Amino acid sequence: MQLLKKRLTQITNSKNSDVKCEIRHCICLHQVLLEVYWRARNMYSIMLMFHYFVTMITTCSDLFILIGQPDTVGIVVMTVTLTFILVQFACYTFPAEQIAFEFNNLSLILYTSKWYTNSTEYQKMILFMMMKSQCVPYFTGAGIMEINVYAFGSVIRKSFSFYAVMQNVLRK
User: Residue 12 sits in which domain range?
Assistant: First the structure.
């Protein structure tokens, strides 16, 4: 995506006579990137939703066990486990957010270029790419929720909420 953005910036700022062919090539590359993204999104959708719930449940139960640990070794083991579980989920959410940002940023790059100084046919082709890239695609968990940085924060907040409920119900 970054290479496509760089190439489009070069094309839009040049006055080359073969711009139309290069723009068509960039449009084809953009469509290929979108197709690859949608296939990956569909392929990993169920797995991301499963991982969201497993992370939330595991974090909640590990917090519950961690607070009740009397020995130092148990506290260290549970803390390391909890840290790795959250880091593993972060390895899904942060790159997913970056991919969405890159797709959205393409529209901004095109809009801030000098696309309006070229021919009408050129403007129409660039306008098509701008419209396609303004729809911010996010990875989703089974189509129910977006997997992004907000989902990472959501897991942490919900885990602490469920922990508080478990603490009140089971420890009284």
Answer: 2-170
Q: Which residues contact 115 (CB under 8 A, 6 or more apart)?
A: 12, 122, 123, 126, 127
Query: To which H or E segment does residue 79 belong?
Result: helix 72-112
Asked if 109 and 6 count as a contact pair (C-beta separation under 8 A), the reply is no
The structure tokens 């999104």 sit at 41
Residue with tokens 């997997």: 147
**Which bin fits 148, alpha (ψ -120 to 50), beta or left (φ > 0)?**
beta
Q: How far apart are CA 10 and CA 92, in angstroms?
A: 32
Counting the structural domains of the chain, the total is 1
Q: Tell me which residue of 109, 108, 99, 102 sits closest to 9, measured CA to CA.
A: 109
State the pTM of this model: 0.82
Q: How many CA atoms lie within 13 A of 45 on its CB side?
A: 13
Per-residue pLDDT of the chain (172 residues; tens, 9 = 90+): 889 988 888 887 776 667 788 888 998 999 999 999 999 999 999 999 999 999 999 999 898 888 877 788 888 888 999 999 999 999 999 999 999 899 888 888 888 887 777 778 888 888 888 888 888 788 999 989 999 999 999 999 999 999 899 888 887 6
